[in-house]
């Protein structure tokens, strides 16, 4: 069950990274291509590191499942703070 929450959060983080990245890169065609490839590489690496962490036992497992959950929480807090400023 804990791994399920971590995996769900990890997929949300990967989607957020790609969506936000493409929204910033969409104006110019060359940035779309190069930036899209860079975003894909970043998301693949994040997913691979998550898989390595959650396949371990002990504290490494808990750290691996906590990282995506913490990233989603940080994302939500950042955008909540940003909307309060505007």
| Assembly type | single chain
Which term fits the overall shape?
Answer: flat
Largest sheet at a glance? none
> How many beta-strand elements?
0
Mean pLDDT: 87
Computed over alpha carbons, the radius of gyration is 15 Å
Percent of residues in helical segments?
over 70%
The portion of residues forming beta strands comes to under 5%
Total number of helices: 3
Secondary-structure-derived class: mainly alpha
Number of domains: 1
Which regions are unreliable across 5 or more consecutive residues at pLDDT < 50?
Answer: none
Strand and helix order: HHH
Give the termini separation.
Answer: 38 Å
Explained architecture:
With 86 residues, the protein is mainly alpha-helical. The protein has one domain (2-85). It is built from three helices and no strands. The longest helix is centred in the C-terminal third of the chain and has 27 residues, at 59-85. The mean pLDDT is 87.
List the helices and strands and how they pair.
Layout lengths: L1 H24 L3 H26 L4 H27 L1
Helix pairs in contact: 1-2, 1-3, 2-3
Short précis:
With 86 residues, this protein is mostly helical. The protein has helices at residues 2-25, 29-54, 59-85. α1 (2-25) runs antiparallel to α2 (29-54).
What are the key terms here?
mainly alpha; 86 residues
């Amino acid at each position: 069950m804990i791994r399920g929450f971590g995996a769900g959060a990890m997929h949300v983080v990967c989607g957020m990274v790609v969506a936000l990245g493409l929204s910033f890169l969409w104006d110019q065609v060359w940035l779309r291509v190069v930036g899209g490839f860079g975003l894909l590489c970043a998301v693949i690496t994040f997913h691979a590191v998550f898989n390595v962490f959650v396949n371990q036992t002990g504290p490494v497992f808990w750290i691996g499942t906590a990282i995506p959950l913490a990233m989603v929480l940080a994302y939500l807090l950042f955008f909540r703070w940003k909307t309060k400023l505007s």
